[in-house]
Write a structure and sequence with these properties.
Elements: H1 5-17, H2 25-43, H3 56-75, H4 77-81, H5 90-115, H6 121-129, H7 147-164, H8 173-201, H9 205-224, H10 236-241, H11 249-267, E1 277-279, E2 284-286, H12 292-302, H13 306-319, H14 321-336
Antiparallel strand pairs: 1-2
Helix pairs in contact: 1-2, 3-5, 5-8, 7-8, 7-9, 7-11
The protein binds Phenylacetyl coenzyme A.
């Protein structure tokens, strides 16, 4: 919760502003004062909360990013869910089911965070289903073998954590707080993927080859998850100035590569990049060029599974209509009968 004087000023001004804005000089002065107070609060690392005044563009950027993030979580359930019925043991099946359920939960926290900005879930889902909002490029690739479940956990969840831990310090309170729990769960997801790949890597030659093949296919798309290079990233500069993003796309991508190289060695697997080597001077790993044509093509809808993912999402939404209707009818009935005020119903 924001406590410093600067932010209180923004709140007080915003409350005063509820009296009405009719375009007078006083209103213009008020807006400039709100902006100064908002900028000072962000500069002082205070949290912006739902009732605080915020620039329209800040609100729109948050809705865009949080919605894309929420959509990624629920579309991201599909590639792994594909393997639930074929998990090789009860233990693996239980772990995978828990992971996929966690992803649904992450979607719920994130849609709720977006709702605090005044945008309803129905509207966001409609934008997803009609292609007006994006989800992460990574979920447009197929899961061809069981080892892909391990590669997703190790690389995709690993990339997600690298990107999301800094979001726990995002300037918008509800998003930052949602990320704390999400990151804890992603950490478990990453470890289960690593452990799965380790078991395969140390298994039969066929299992080792399956693990290597999965890593070969998921490595480059995982690097693309961090978004376009900094000089092509339309939103980074403003999002970093607002402290929504704390690091640039390239910084986080580099951090991820540096984390993965020793982990791949421990796994006994090779990362599919002949240019990957330690750079003494930079104290980072150099890595080869990313195929950005592929990335933009996937974003345009031409990835291997775009069509399948969105068709399945729309079907799940349509088939779940009766649940939403029943839940709404139940809530309306109980609020009318006073259950909403704590009266227990039989
Ligand atoms: N895929 O200017 P920037 C997960 C778009 S969750 C698709 O750099 P920004 C958990 C971008 O929206 C994975 N689109 O954008 C899990 C923009 O288009 P727009 C999701 C992408 O926002 C694991 C345009 O390109 N995580 O994996 C991508 O500053 C396993 C220009 O880009 C998040 O969403 C992409 N990879 O930076 C679940 C984290 N990259 O909107 C299941 C939160 C960029 O103008 C299983 N998001 N674009 O039409 C972020 O941190 C940021 O939004 C970035 C992009 C870094 C993704």
């Amino acid at each position: 919760m924001a406590t410093a004087a600067t932010h209180q000023t923004a709140r007080t001004l915003a409350q005063d502003g509820q009296d009405g804005q009719d375009g007078t000089q006083a209103d213009v002065d008020d807006t400039a004062a709100y902006e100064r107070a908002f900028d000072a609060a962000v500069a002082a690392d205070e949290r912006v909360e739902p009732r605080d005044w915020m620039p329209d563009a800040y609100r729109a950027t948050l809705v865009r990013q949080i919605a894309q993030h929420a959509h990624s979580e629920i579309i991201g359930m599909q590639p792994e869910a594909n393997w639930i019925t074929r998990a090789p043991s009860l233990r693996r099946k239980a772990i995978l089911m828990a992971k996929v359920q966690d992803e649904a939960g992450h979607g719920l926290y994130l849609y709720s965070a977006a709702e605090t900005l005044g945008t309803g879930r129905e509207e966001l889902l409609d934008k997803l289903h009609t292609g007006r909002q994006k989800y992460s490029s990574i979920f447009n690739y197929p899961t061809l073998t069981w080892a892909d479940v391990g590669a997703i956990g190790w690389l995709v969840d690993g990339a997600a954590i690298t990107n999301q831990v800094p979001l726990c310090r995002c300037s918008y309170g509800p998003y930052a707080r949602a990320m704390v729990r999400i990151c804890k769960e992603e950490s478990f997801h990453q470890r289960q993927g690593y452990e799965l790949l380790l078991a395969l890597s140390r298994g039969t030659p066929e299992q080792h080859a399956m693990a290597q093949d999965a890593v070969d296919r998921w490595w480059w798309p995982s690097l693309m998850m961090f978004g376009p290079p900094d000089d092509e990233s339309a939103h980074s500069a403003q999002s970093m100035a607002w402290k929504i993003k704390r690091h640039s796309n390239d910084e986080l991508r580099q951090r991820f590569v540096d984390i993965c190289v020793p982990q791949a060695e421990s796994l006994g697997l090779t990362l599919p990049d002949p240019d990957l080597r330690w750079n003494e001077e930079r104290e980072h790993h150099d890595f080869g060029p990313i195929d950005w044509t592929e990335f933009w093509d996937v974003l345009k809808g031409n990835g291997p599974c775009n069509e399948q993912r969105i068709t399945q999402r729309r079907r799940a939404h349509d088939e779940g209509a009766w649940v939403r209707e029943a839940a709404s009818a139940y809530a309306a009935k109980h609020s009318a009968s006073g259950a909403g005020r704590g009266v227990e119903q039989a």
